[in-house]
Amino acid sequence: MLLLRRARVPLPCLPSALAAAAPVPPLGHEPWLECDLLVGDDRIVAVRHEGHVAGDWPHGDSPIAVEDLGGSLVYPGLLDVHTHLDKCHTWDRAPNPRGEFWEAIRILREDAAHWTPEDLHRRAGFGLRQAHTRGTIALRTHLDTGSDMGGEAHVVMQELKHAWAGKLELQTVSLCNLASFSGKDARRVVELTADHHAAALGGFPQPNPDLPKQLDNLMAAAAEIGLGLDLHVDESGLGHAECLRATAEAVLRNRFPHPVTCGHCCSLAVHEPARAASTIDLVRQAGIAVVTLPLCNQYLQNRGRMPTAPGAAPAPRLTPHWRGLTLVHEFMEAGVTVAAGSDNVRDAFYAWGAFDGLEVWTQAVRQAQLDTRLETAPALVTSAPAAIMGLSDYGHVGPGAVARLVLPAARTFNELLATSAVPRRLLTGIELTCPEPPALAEL
Question: pTM for the whole thing?
Fold first, then answer.
């Protein structure tokens, strides 16, 4: 076994009894607890702090190696709850220099002609290596599924899931167009979802008069195969886009019994405050979890140009007035589960990224001003995505949790947030390593 001395663990990641024993910092500043962690080959055995012990602390002369962390932060292994491995690392051959949402859809539809099994293995496998070396231990990817797409991607992801077993838990979601699903694609999407053991049925609802019926159809299909939903919702700044509200109403109307997650939810931030508050309350009643995607949404949303005459050359860009975030604070205040994810990486939807959960977290904190909510913010990439993904022994540092931890070279949240390139060590069982991320030149 390995004893980690003087580890500073974020309060949301500790057993509740230990977290309650922590001194209350002023204004929620630096809410961590310095404690000792006893780690076995594959599980955390116990956590101890000044007379408080969670788990079975051994007595006697058991041989235990000791590593004094000197008061450095320790996170549980990170979880990336919303990604697109089938699209990642296509930027070099399918760039989107305009950076616009619908242009990204067009570009990647054309690029899909190149998505052979070999191509998907190469790109997605590289992405998983990136995530693993940065401390991610569970990742959920949406896969374009519908018409003639998705079959090969599901096969490849199942192969990668088996290859990464024991190192990184890989989940898949079948992403489809709800209008097409209500027509010719439904049977094929459901069969691929069931045959390849996807974690959820997905989709990207769009505002239209048939939306309630489309959501009812999707929920009926998901209930039939015993799965929840993981949807792309309101990824725009349109004031009339209320697919999140429609989804919550559909969950309540259908008494849908399985978990529902809604990613993006960007347009909620431009709704009238009273209407937004009403929608958030419906989301709470429906038990829907929300995922914010700070990197991609900041990149894509609110891109605009100066007005021009029809047929004229493109006008100069306008500075964005709004950056694409959903109402993170308001959801948290309402008690809604909120997580953050990488979303797209080096493709037409987002030109950059590296499947780095700590980068996702620091950008979410900076953009949403969660420095005033650090007592809950670490849950965005730990316990919240673990709850969404149904991984009860992930996302926390306590007895029985998987023994995979991230040790950034930072003693405080301020040090962690001060730069975008904090070095880190990883603990797997009782082994500490400093893995090097793969070089992009490999691609």
Answer: 0.95
